[in-house]
TrEMBL record, chain B:
Keywords: Germination, Lipoprotein, Membrane, Palmitate, Signal. PANTHER family: SPORE GERMINATION PROTEIN B3. Residues 22-177 form the Spore germination protein N-terminal domain. The lineage of its organism: Bacteria, Bacillati, Bacillota, Bacilli, Bacillales. InterPro entries: GerAC_N, Spore_GerAC-like, Spore_GerAC-like_C, Spore_GerAC_C_sf. One of its GO terms (biological process) is spore germination. It comes from the Bacteria. GO terms for cellular component: membrane. NCBIfam families: spore_ger_x_C (TIGR02887). Its main location: membrane. Belongs to the GerABKC lipoprotein family. Residues 199-367 form the Spore germination GerAC-like C-terminal domain. This is Ger(X)C family spore germination protein. It is found in: Membrane.
Length: 511, 370
């Protein structure tokens, strides 16, 4: 292990030096009576930044100056909430005149400077020992559109955006309970980003909330820009191929999980909620299942789970068959397959790796390009290369079918993260199939199964309704039974109340 | 790089690579679709195989067949010798039909030639077995029939006849030498005007062919030995044996068979077999009778039962004469009368066994509606 630790910690000595210098200027500094002194101090504290605006004010309340950062404040709001009322009013206290929803009085200039960075403007009058800090942020939100990567056919078509407050609002709008609790954090010593965890106080496991709280507070890093970085910090097993935290951009999916006793993590600047603890099957649930009828929902969910096996096993199975166990092919199909592989110069594993990598390349290329070009890449890649490669005789027809089916199956997963892990997992399986045939596949699948059973998401079993077996939870994990049959919440989230619906109400009809 | 790392890597690579010797790439294999064994001088084996190749193009697939004949000491030796003249690796894993020349099975024990099929894990245990009139080589040398290769053609031919319940389902697995107590029978093929055709059945006494049956007889034989199935069709001539107007034939389709075989040993020495066959049949063709009348139908039932009983008796006599115990009487004796079994010489005893054969028949359907 000495090798790896040297590799990963080679710049430790450098980073130690800067870490010591970071907290020098955060001592208190009282507001001076002279406006000029204050302005100079602020300018120095912000290192003469160019977007610091200084507007002198002379009105009936006195002579003073308004300081704000041009880049985070809205000039219209400054005009509307501060300047207009100030000039219109007489000699009243500015606190009673300014119409912004958040006006504070501060005597500590350092505190005022911190607030300035978040979209407050600072007003100081000559001779005063305190300053007024007024909230006038510039807000620039995009619409709450349906997320591109998690489309639903039926159901809500809104999605999270980069503003955490809007996202919280989307959640609160749906959950009217006063048990919905938001805990706020400030993360990153330099970035100071807003973050929050959201949970239902009467459902979520308090121990788990404390655990997450501890983990988030324990992060000691300069830069925490988005939720995906937090994810890696708090995840238990970063090197597992399976994601242990569900990412979703859909409010309805988040709310559904909150109501099962899970905890969501939101962060300013990230249009995604991270949900813990999750089991493997949560990644295969889609809002569409709940918005369609039970039979259709169950069918589609089973299809998705089946696609997991196709996506990781089909190429491996094909390779094992054509390089070790061709006698298992039924005799009617045998000569068709044999006829098409007979003149291929490469062993099947190379064929498969070549085609799989080509598909991954195509996917990546199509994603990076704007939509109109992306489509033509798909056509060029899929049709032209696919056809030519067979005609030249580098790859056989069955291999094309196998690879295409596998690619389709891997995109069925409703979670992007899981889709990645499924695509990664099939490479070791293909290699073991090429080395050891069916035995290789069995060994690899055993390893995967053991890993799934051992894996935990925040202390909760990852393979939940299967590996600690609980048949009741199959109702909403493998299948999707009608809502009136889902009387209990899933066990794996350890919610405080298991019953979510009672079917014996007084006066109610008996089923 | 620690030593542990190197060790782990070595073990991992060794584990991964140890399977490579077992690799059998499909693209390198040449698979036999039909194989035949004939008699060669000095107890040697004359093996003929047809290797089927398919080329897939955009216009579709095209089959070709390649015939090789070698004279060898044993089956495995024949495989080696064929491999010497075949490009690619010879493989019998997809063998569909194994043919024996008539002369070979009349004069030789075939079990030694089958031995290798029971040892190889890739052995085609579901390959059908048949006997070819004349030599198997002659039949395989037809190479292509229409646009089907000979292997595919014979396999499909046997399969369709099995579905019609005209020949028994026999494959390499059912012929296993440890399965004792009854004698097996194989379909009999012949080349008829340049086309392979099923001619009937070959009955074996132990491991030698001793008697052949035509297709009519073989159907009754199947019913008697319990190998018969639904949809077994027979065209019989219940009355007016010498008239030839086209009105005298009746075709029946067997819907249900109830067969009881009882082996009775009287006084610890005389072996008697009581074979009762109850058939429920549908009449599919009967130009002369109007079966809506119950009396006519019952009359027909009686006549057909009598004819079938007569036929059965003839076939049982033929079987006894040939020393062919297709009903598995020997197995019953082994199981239920072991003392007697040890005492007697079955080969001598079998032709003397008294068979009491009775066929009764019931018409359950006469028309289209089932």
């Amino acid at each position: 292990m000495g090798f790896f630790s040297r590799m990963f910690t080679n710049n430790r000595s450098k980073s130690k030096g800067t870490a010591k210098r970071s907290h020098i200027a955060s001592e208190d500094r009282a507001v001076s009576a002279a406006t000029k002194d204050n302005v100079e101090y602020v300018q120095q504290a912000l290192y003469q930044t160019g977007d610091l605006e200084n507007r002198p004010i002379v009105c009936s309340a006195g002579q003073g100056c308004l300081l704000y950062l041009d880049s985070v404040c809205d000039p219209d709001k400054i005009h509307e909430f501060i300047l207009k009322p100030l000039f219109a009013a007489g000699e009243d206290d500015p606190m009673s005149v300014i119409t912004s929803s958040d006006v504070q009085k501060h005597t500590d200039l350092e505190r005022a400077i911190d607030l300035m960075l978040e979209g407050y403007s600072v007003l100081h009058f000559e001779g005063g020992r305190e300053c007024y800090v007024v909230r006038v942020p510039s807000v620039n939100n995009r619409a709450v559109e349906e997320p591109m990567n998690e489309k639903a056919i039926q159901g809500a078509h809104n999605g999270f955006i980069e503003s955490m407050n809007v996202n919280l609002q989307l959640i609160r709008k749906q959950i009217g309970s006063r048990n919905l609790v938001v805990r706020r954090y400030r993360l990153g010593k330099m970035t100071k980003s807003d973050a929050s965890i959201v949970y239902l106080n009467d459902l979520a496991d308090p121990k788990l909330v404390d655990e997450i709280d501890r983990k988030i507070k324990a992060i000691d890093a300069d830069n925490l820009m988005n939720a995906y970085m937090i994810l890696e910090y708090v995840e238990n097993q970063s090197f597992s191929p399976f994601p242990q935290i569900l990412q979703t951009e859909r409010p309805d999916r988040t709310i559904g999980n909150l109501l099962e006793g899970r905890i969501a993590f939101l962060m300013e600047g990230t249009p995604t909620a991270l949900i813990v603890p999750v089991s493997f099957f949560v990644f295969y649930q889609s809002p569409d299942d709940y918005n369609s009828r039970t039979l259709a929902g169950t069918f589609i969910r089973l299809l998705r789970l089946f696609s997991f096996f196709i996506a990781i096993m089909l190429p491996a199975y094909y390779i094992a068959v054509v390089s070790f166990h061709y006698e298992v092919i039924p005799k009617e199909v045998f000569y068709q397959i044999k006829g098409s592989v007979a003149k291929i110069p490469y062993p099947p594993i190379l064929e498969a790796l070549f085609m799989e990598l080509a598909i991954e390349l195509l996917r990546e290329a199509g994603m990076r390009l704007p939509a109109p070009i992306g489509q033509s890449i798909g056509i060029v890649g899929g049709l032209v290369i696919g056809d030519a490669v067979v005609r030249v005789g580098l790859v056989s027809y069955p291999m094309i079918i196998v690879v295409a089916l596998t690619a389709i199956a891997s995109f069925v997963v409703p979670s992007h993260e899981m889709s990645y892990s499924v695509r990664l997992l099939r490479f070791p399986l293909m290699l073991s199939a090429a080395f050891l045939g069916f035995q290789g596949i069995v060994f690899s699948l055993m390893a995967i199964l053991v890993h799934l059973c051992i894996l935990e998401s925040f202390g909760r079993p990852y393979f939940a309704p299967l590996a600690p077996m609980r048949l009741k939870d199959w109702k909403d994990s493998l299948m999707r039974l009608p809502f009136w049959m889902l009387n209990e919440r899933p066990m794996e989230s350890h919610s405080q109340k298991l019953i979510q619906e009672s079917n014996r109400q007084k006066g109610g009809a008996k089923r | 790089m620690s030593r542990r790392f190197v060790c782990t890597l070595t073990v991992a690579v060794a584990l991964a690579v140890c399977g490579c010797w077992d690799q059998q790439l499909l693209k390198n294999e040449r698979t036999v679709s039909i194989g035949g064994m004939d008699e060669a001088p000095k107890g040697k084996l004359r093996a003929t195989v047809s290797i089927r190749d398919t080329t897939i193009t955009e216009a579709g697939s095209k089959d070709t067949s390649e015939i090789h004949t070698v004279v060898a000491r044993s089956t495995q030796h024949a495989r080696q010798k064929i491999d010497e003249e075949v490009s690619g690796i010879y493989s019998a894993a997809k063998l569909r039909v194994l043919l024996f020349g008539e002369e070979l099975v009349r004069n030789h024990d075939i079990m030694p030639f089958l031995d290798v099929y029971y040892r190889d894990p890739k052995s085609p245990l579901s390959a059908r077995i048949a006997v070819a009139r004349g030599t198997a080589e002659e039949l395989i040398r037809l190479k292509m029939v229409g646009d089907k290769t000979i292997g595919l053609y014979v396999d499909d031919l046997l399969k369709s006849m099995e579905l019609d319940a005209a020949i028994p389902q026999v494959n390499i697995q059912t012929l296993h030498p440890l399965d004792r107590g009854f004698d097996f029978s194989l379909p009999l093929l012949a080349v008829k005007r340049g086309v392979p055709a099923v001619q009937g059945m070959a009955l074996f006494n132990g491991i030698r062919l001793t008697e052949t049956l035509n297709l009519d007889e073989s159907r009754v034989y199947l019913l008697l030995t319990g190998l018969g199935k639904q949809n077994l069709r027979m065209t019989l001539q219940p009355m007016e044996k010498n008239k030839s107007s086209g009105y005298q034939y009746v075709t029946i389709n067997v819907k249900k068979i109830r067969r009881s075989l009882k082996v009775i040993v009287a006084d610890d020495q005389e072996i008697q077999v009581r074979l009762n066959l109850k058939l429920r049949v549908a009449v599919e063709e009967d130009p002369s009778n109007h079966l809506y009348k119950m009396s006519v139908m019952h009359n027909l039932e009686r006549l057909l039962s009598e004819e079938l009983t007569d036929n059965s008796k003839k076939i049982i006599r033929k079987m006894q004469k040939a020393g062919h115990d297709g009903c598995g009487v020997a197995r019953r004796l082994m199981a239920f009368h072991p003392k007697l079994w040890k005492r007697i010489d079955w080969k001598k005893e079998y032709p003397q066994v008294r068979f009491d054969t009775r066929v009764s028949l019931e018409i359950v359907n006469t028309g289209i509606t089932q």
